[in-house]
From TrEMBL:
<comment type="similarity">
    <text>Belongs to the gas vesicle GvpF/GvpL family.</text>
</comment>
<dbReference type="Pfam" id="PF06386">
    <property type="entry name" value="GvpL_GvpF"/>
</dbReference>
<feature type="region of interest" description="Disordered">
    <location>
        <begin position="136"/>
        <end position="161"/>
    </location>
</feature>
<keyword id="KW-0304">Gas vesicle</keyword>
<protein>
    <recommendedName>
        <fullName>Gas vesicle protein</fullName>
    </recommendedName>
</protein>
<dbReference type="InterPro" id="IPR009430">
    <property type="entry name" value="GvpL/GvpF"/>
</dbReference>
<dbReference type="GO" id="GO:0031411">
    <property type="term" value="C:gas vesicle"/>
</dbReference>
<dbReference type="GO" id="GO:0031412">
    <property type="term" value="P:gas vesicle organization"/>
</dbReference>
Length: 272
């Protein structure tokens, strides 16, 4: 249709084979390859009524619409990652028509080629470390669990005993946090040596943190050669369980969302 715009998922080198016929992207449309001087933009048509500037700005405030669009975007990028090393673009990157996409490829050619050369043969792995909740502050007024009806209440402790117990608890938490910091620093250093590049993202807190998951103390990404991914994961496996109260979470392999530009952070992509 003439009022369709062009949604761009990623830029890559020419693919050896067409995209899977059953693959669909944003707005339920199958993506296609748009080639220009040795670069390929993976695009699909999207309706102007949803993706022109004003309606798009309104849609981005709709969390359900945003989540569905992000899932469709990621499904295309993930499919590309199985056959090449794509440079993912930001969610809702839209151009007027094919000519606009080609102009982008022309104008950004040097930067795009530089990034594609750097990420070629690599995938991104995400690693988070969580420090388990201590449980302090829950339950009764003295910080312990409320006794059940079948349990006798403890004899009230003196103020001096209460303060001594609180100081001991604080010291234990501080010691646990210090051990956790040493663990995460060592783990990040070891993983970075297996990677071509690494990024430390801000730790997660607030609504991004699942209830009961503990405190996020490491949120990192690593650009790892595909051929070394198994070794990379084995290193994480050996580190898991070595320090009680810590949980290591691994995600991937992803397209190189965190490594789409220089060391100051991504311009074209964003962490999944």
């Amino acid at each position: 249709m003439t009022d369709d715009l062009r949604y761009v998922y990623a830029v890559c080198r020419p693919l050896a084979a067409p995209l899977h016929a059953d693959l669909t992207g944003v707005a339920g449309e199958p993506p296609r390859q748009l080639a220009h001087e040795g670069l390929v933009a993976v695009v699909s048509p999207v309706p102007e009524r949803d993706f022109a500037h004003e309606p798009l700005r309104a849609h981005l405030e709709d969390l359900d619409w945003l989540a569905a669009t992000a899932r469709a975007h990621q499904s295309v990028v993930a499919a590309l990652t199985t056959v090449t090393c794509p440079l993912p673009l930001r969610l809702a990157t839209v151009f007027r028509d094919d000519s606009g996409v080609r102009a982008m490829l022309e104008d950004e050619s040097e930067r795009l080629r530089r990034i594609l050369d750097r990420i070629d043969g690599h995938v991104e792995w995400g690693v988070k470390v969580w420090l388990g909740d201590s449980g302090d502050g829950a339950g009764g007024a003295d910080g312990g669990p409320e006794p059940s009806a079948a349990q006798p209440r403890r004899v009230p402790e003196s103020g001096r005993d209460y303060l001594r117990r609180r100081r001991a608890g604080n010291a234990a938490r501080e010691e646990s946090a210090a051990r956790a910091e040493v663990f995460t620093r060592r783990l990040h250093g070891d993983l970075a040596r297996y990677a071509a590049d690494a990024r430390l993202h801000p730790v997660q807190s607030g609504p991004l943190t699942e209830a009961g998951s503990g405190r996020n103390i490491l949120n990192s990404a690593y650009l790892v050669p595909r051929a070394r991914s198994e070794e990379f994961l084995e290193l994480i496996g050996r580190a898991e369980g070595t320090l009680p109260g810590l949980r290591v979470e691994v995600t991937g392999p992803w397209a190189a969302y965190s490594f789409t530009d220089g060391p100051d952070g991504p311009e074209a992509g964003g962490t999944p």
